Amino acid sequence: MVKERRKYDREFKKEIVRLVEEGNRPVKELAEDLEIHPHLIYKWRRKFLDEGNHAFPGKGHMKPEEAELRKIKKELADVKEERDILKKALAIFSKQPR
After folding, report:
1. CA distances from 1 to 4, 30, 53, 89 (A)
2. CA-CA distances (angstroms) from residue 69 to 19, 47, 54?
3. Which helix (DSSP H) or strand (DSSP E) does residue 58 occupy?
């Protein structure tokens, strides 16, 4: 029988990290109570410390930096396409009539 992978929402992960940071309970004890592996808690903690409030964006969501980069790349692609169209139009209209 295949064990189904559990999913944890952003608020749950942030709450677990908060509990660990407060230091009231050891990670091992917290992991046993929640029936998750302690390494998962350490991973969440490291990610939260690295990325702050942008950690755990969720499926289909991006961090603000990634969204901005995607937007800029799309704008660049649009500008390149327009440039290429104008180049072709210039070549067509600048031909000398015979």
Report:
1. 9, 27, 37, 63
2. 34, 21, 15
3. none
Burial class (CB in 10 A: 0-12, 13-18, 19+), 77: exposed
**Type and span of the H or E element at 27:** helix 27-34
Q: Is residue 4 domain-shared with residue 27, that is, in the same domain?
A: yes
Tokens of 39: 């390494």
Domain residues for the domain of 95 are 62-98
Supply the Cα-derived Rg of the chain in whole angstroms.
25
pTM: 0.54
- The number of distinct structural domains making up the chain is 2
pLDDT average per 10 residues of sequence, the chain (98 residues): 76 86 85 89 86 71 79 95 93 77
